[in-house]
Write a structure and sequence with these properties.
Largest sheet of chain C: 3 strands, antiparallel
Order of helices and strands of chain C: EEEHHHHHEEHHHHHHEEEHHHH
Number of strands of chain C: 8
Structural class of chain B: alpha/beta
Number of helices of chain C: 15
Distance between the termini of chain C: 31 Å
CATH topology of chain C: Cytochrome-c3 Hydrogenase, chain B
Radius of gyration of chain B: 18 Å
CATH class of the domain at 24-113 in chain B: Alpha Beta
CATH superfamily of chain C: Cytochrome-c3 Hydrogenase, chain B
Number of helices of chain B: 3
CATH superfamily of the domain at 24-113 in chain B: NADH:ubiquinone oxidoreductase Nqo5 subunit
Strand content of chain C: 5-15%
Number of domains of chain C: 1
Strand content of chain B: 25-35%
Oligomer: heterotrimer
CATH architecture of the domain at 24-113 in chain B: 2-Layer Sandwich
Chains: A mainly alpha, B alpha/beta, C alpha+beta
Helix content of chain B: 10-25%
Strand order of the largest sheet of chain C: 1-2-3
Largest interface: B-C, 44 and 50 residues
Shape of chain C: globular
Shape of chain B: globular
Helix content of chain C: 40-55%
CATH class of chain C: Mainly Alpha
């Protein structure tokens, strides 16, 4: 029996649907594993290696020896398919907007968006420029806002800890999706 | 040759020879006035090492070639475009490494015809700077190898630095 | 076949796109594409007063933001014909050279991380924090300082500034020797840098390349020595060159420049006189033009400001060194392999904020 990958995904989805989502087996498994998977997710946040402007330097410094974000499990990955957080750290120009939307769409869910710095929150010092989108939440839903111009590395780490709290509050089971 | 030594002093460029009693500003002025007697005007020394001159746009390319080949101005530092009420001014800042001199060469175009010859055949470093002036101010450079928008998206309709763009 | 490297790519510090045409593994054509960070700063400056523009110029090149706000203040002081008190000049020069060391260390960290030597990233970032602390004591901020003012600096140096700067210079000179042992002793680093990305002297001058890449191709031209501004004529230091023109030469020039910067900082803080650190500048700018030129850590930065007798400038034009150096990328990339792109473009120390303005 030769499966093409599209057919395989459909078949696997069907099995999942039948065995786990509709039956009580899924609910039971979720009860056992929900907390554990949620703990793993929130302690291994992988942001995308995407630096736009000044706040990107503070993002790099947050991984440096003095502030060390890696002890919270934050490791930057280069491909959007491997990440769960999109960290927007600079002004989004009109030329960049379609590319950013494409990056966001390429990330698999569950995914979160963190707007770091004034430029990503509302346009920053360039709010009245002809080529800046005033705030990234105009076209992408944002979960955490980190103010500052540039946001200090301590503020970035605080933002990630708040994101961890947010993930903890919204626990979802892997098998039933609830 | 030991490449790992500290920065070797070899490769120092030769300074242009000076005649007694004549500094590089005066020498440049005399040479330019001899070559372009009718179109070069308004020569002024701004401060030590920086001089300014105005030239008419029909002689601009000739003057730039003369500056590079005969007077040794090897480097184009900056090309700016300024819009006034009745004209456009294009300001070229050209550096001579040999005599440490900066020449500010200003040319004018009428408001309804902002075109000027491209100097990218003289200095390749002018290529992107002219594209930027075209992109943001709308100055057209004749005979430019690739006059396209560079900073704004290709389908942007306006020239933002013009005074009538209020966006 | 055209390959798109960017705009989201770990090699590109900042957002720009490099399209290379390859024949197998060899590069036969290259086309950099910039503009993803364009904020229209030149237009924004026409809507703000002279003092309100200072924080915006900080954000032009965030890797060395003091240089750009200093350049802006120099240009406006040229336009308004203001003389800055000597104490302010010495503080400015000391701060700029600290910024230069911090910028070169940031480059070293990113360069090492790109080439696979993560140990360089960790060490360089740790040492950069020392200079960031000094600049934070001076101005109150870590990255975009908003410290120079038209007519001087915003506030005086803190009490222990001289003692801390001298300690930092002593520490740094020992560390530079350690870095040289670390990097020169790494076979991978040397293989990826020697003989790669050669730019000849004539090409460098013709293409408008300035700064460390120009000096690494053998042209001995440093604006701090050849067209000096501020108090550089009174200080004793050397412009560093290297004859080879490859990536290793650019690395060597920057390491030596850090040593020279330590020398300059020592002289500046020891010779600093007492007195005023700021004069008040007029609110309304005169009609006329002002020109400023500085030696940015990345090359030759220039600003040309046209005033029209009001509180706001009429036109502000900014020359970014990296904008022109990137246009020369094609000449440096032809004939090398795809894996060399990282070393060549990384060696130019690109900061896209100033390219796109």
């Amino acid at each position: 029996m030769m499966f093409r990958s599209r057919d395989f995904v459909k078949w696997a989805d069907g099995v999942f649907e039948g065995v786990f989502r509709r039956s009580s087996l899924g609910g039971g498994l979720d009860l056992l594993t929900k907390d554990f998977f949620n703990w793993a997710t929130r302690n291994s946040i992988y942001p995308l290696h995407f630096g736009i402007m000044c706040c990107a330097l503070e993002m790099a410094v947050a991984s440096a020896p003095r502030f060390d974000a890696q002890r919270f499990g934050i490791i930057y990955r280069s491909s959007p398919r491997q990440c769960d957080v999109l960290l927007v750290n600079g002004p989004v120009s009109k030329k960049l907007k379609p590319d950013l939307k494409r990056l966001y769409d390429q990330m698999p869910s569950p995914k979160w968006v963190v707007a770091m710095g004034e430029c990503a929150i509302s346009g920053g010092p360039f709010y009245d420029s002809y080529s800046i989108v005033p705030g990234v939440d105009q076209f992408i839903p944002v979960d955490i806002y980190i103010p500052g111009c540039p946001a200090r590395p301590e503020a970035l780490i605080d933002g990630f800890i708040k994101l961890q709290k947010l993930i903890k509050e919204n626990k979802r089971g892997l098998f039933t999706g609830k | 040759m030991d490449k790992r030594g500290a920065g070797a002093p070899a490769g120092a460029i030769e300074r242009a020879p000076t005649t007694v009693g004549e500094n590089p500003e005066e020498r440049t002025f005399k040479a330019l006035l001899e070559a372009f007697p009718s179109t070069l005007t308004d020569f002024k020394k701004l401060r030590k090492g920086i001089v300014r001159a105005r030239i008419e746009r029909r002689d601009l390319l000739e003057c730039c070639r003369y500056l590079k080949d005969k007077l040794g101005f090897e480097h184009i530092s900056m090309i700016s475009a300024v819009e006034y009420e009745n004209r456009f001014e294009i300001v070229y800042h050209i550096t001579c490494y040999g005599s440490c001199l900066l020449l500010e060469l200003i040319t004018q175009t009428p408001k309804d015809d902002p075109t000027v010859e491209s100097v990218s055949s003289v200095w390749a470093g002018a290529n992107w700077q002219e594209r930027e002036s075209y992109d943001l101010m709308g100055i057209k450079f004749n005979n430019h190898p690739n006059l396209e928008r560079i900073l704004l998206p290709k389908d942007f309709m306006y020239h933002p630095l013009r005074k009538d763009f209020k966006g | 076949m055209w390959i798109n490297m960017g705009p989201q790519h770990p090699m590109t510090h900042g957002l720009w796109n490099l399209r290379i045409k390859v024949d197998g593994e060899t590069i036969v054509d290259a086309e950099p594409e910039v503009g993803y960070l364009h904020r229209g700063i030149e237009k924004l400056c026409e809507r703000r007063t002279y003092t309100q523009i200072i924080p915006i110029t900080d954000r032009l090149c965030y890797g060395s933001s003091l240089t750009w706000s200093h350049l802006y203040c120099l240009t406006v002081e040229d336009l308004m014909n203001i003389e800055v008190p000597p104490r302010a000049e010495y503080i400015r020069v000391a701060a700029i050279e600290m910024q230069r060391i911090a910028s070169h260390l940031m480059w070293l960290a990113a360069y090492a991380a790109d080439l696979g030597m993560l140990v360089g990233f960790i060490y360089a970032m740790r040492d950069r924090e020392i200079f960031i602390d000094l600049l934070q004591a001076l101005s109150g901020s870590r990255l975009t300082y908003n410290y120079p003012r038209i007519g001087g600096v915003a506030h005086d140096a803190p009490p222990n500034f001289v003692r801390d700067s001298l300690r930092a210079c002593d520490y740094m000179e020992g560390k530079i020797a350690e870095y040289e042992k670390l990097y020169d002793g790494s076979k991978v680093f040397m293989m990826r840098n020697e003989g790669v990305g050669v730019l000849s002297k004539e090409d460098a001058m013709n293409l408008g390349v300035t700064g460390p890449p120009l000096r690494a191709s053998g042209v001995k031209y440093d604006l701090r020595k050849d067209q000096p501004y501020s108090i550089y004529p009174e200080l004793d230091f050397e412009a560093v060159t290297h004859p080879d023109g490859d990536c290793y030469a650019r690395y060597r020039v920057r390491m030596e420049e850090m040593r020279e910067s330590c020398k300059i900082i020592r002289q500046a803080v020891q010779k600093m006189p007492q007195g005023k650190w700021r004069v008040l500048a007029p609110r309304i700018g005169p009609e006329g033009t002002g020109l400023g030129r500085v030696e940015d850590p990345r090359g030759e930065g220039m600003m040309y400001i046209v005033g029209n007798g009001t509180q706001r400038p009429y036109r502000v034009k900014i020359r970014s060194p990296i904008f022109v150096t990137v246009s020369a990328a094609k000449h440096m990339l032809l004939g090398y392999k795809v894996a060399d792109v990282v070393a060549i473009m990384g060696g130019l120390d690109m900061c896209i904020g100033e390219t796109d303005r």
